[in-house]
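Journal club side-thread
Mid-discussion, someone asked how the predicted structure for our own chain would compare to the paper's figures. Pasting it here so we can look after the session.
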Amino acid sequence: CSSLAIGTTTGYRLFSLSSVEQLDQVHESNEIPDVYIVERLFSSSLVVVVSHAKPQQMNVYHFKKGTEICNYSYSSNILSIRLNRQRLVVCLEESIYIHNIKDMKLLKTILDTPPNTTGLCALSINHANSYLAYPGSATSGEIALYDGNTLKTACTIPAHDGPLAALAFNSTGSKLASASEKGTVIRVFSIPGGQKLYEFRRGMKRYVNISSLVFSMDSQFLCASSNTETVHIFKLEHLTDSRPEEPPTWSGYMGKMFQAATNYLPAQVSGMMNQDRAFATVRLNISGQRNICALSTIQKLPRLLVTTSDGHLCIYNLDPQDGGECVLIKKHSLLGSGKMEENKENDLRPPLPQSYAATVARQSTVPSTSTMPGYSEDGGALRGEVIPEHEFATGPVCLDDENEFPPVSI
């Protein structure tokens, strides 16, 4: 959460989020129009771009050098892309492709996945735990967990009754949060075991569309935003696994008695008792618009960032001790609909943020063509073939120095 990547009708822009008061533009490109996916590898120079002009083609760039590393074409529209230092994942409506990010070879093809019209998937940013999560069913909230390192299925998690709407790993890849299309309950599971650790109730009055689900880097907080005006931040307390013995207080005694009592209650009732409400909230001045949130540390303080589809980046202070209503401290205006508008608040000219918008997907098969210096057209792997680690080439992904490939400060 140290960078902001924005796709626009004219291209894309990258910003550094190191300051509250201003957005520092890192890069701007107008070579490809109508960008709806732009993914940057942490703070490195590697960026992956997909355009509405060619929705079946993925372009990988080294933007500081102004060079294209490679591009891959698929026979169906690309719905989302995820990447860490080890893997690059391309999600189509009914298939997923896993590439080795060092040389961009295709390592594995997961075919015949349940229809996934929004391209919902999550990849752990911790490359040592390169777990991939995606819907295991189109009708229920089943999560398929896949190990991106060993290229094997890890487990299946029956997370919700209804279809999934959001998935997010924590920074270490040890926890996975999920929400269904109802949007009323958010659950957190241990990885790779799939045991339920937490259950948070976002609300009971109405169903909502969860548009963003994200952990803080220290895994202490979980943020959920939707098409309503309220953003919820939950605090991950009272771990269900090992914890220090509580002092013999009356409240501690009653808490243990209450926990024991839930074992004798119907599952539906006991589940309600284990749910916690939001630790902190934000009330946006808009409703019904898509937004993306992030929990980050900027200038040594915890912040909540909210980017909205009407063209704004809002930065809030988060009180990690007492929670409550978060305070808006800065609102940056962004470009509206790709038009060059005068920014009256901060004289900034960043563009309208585009989410990982789902494009209309057709029947999906394996990648049809790819262009890669020194590699075969099939990307070095056939349908589902696994390439041994020792056969990896040095590869075309050569950033400025070895220190740039992991996250670096800008």
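Post-session note: Confidence is low (pLDDT under 50) at residues 239-247, 266-274, 336-395, 406-410.
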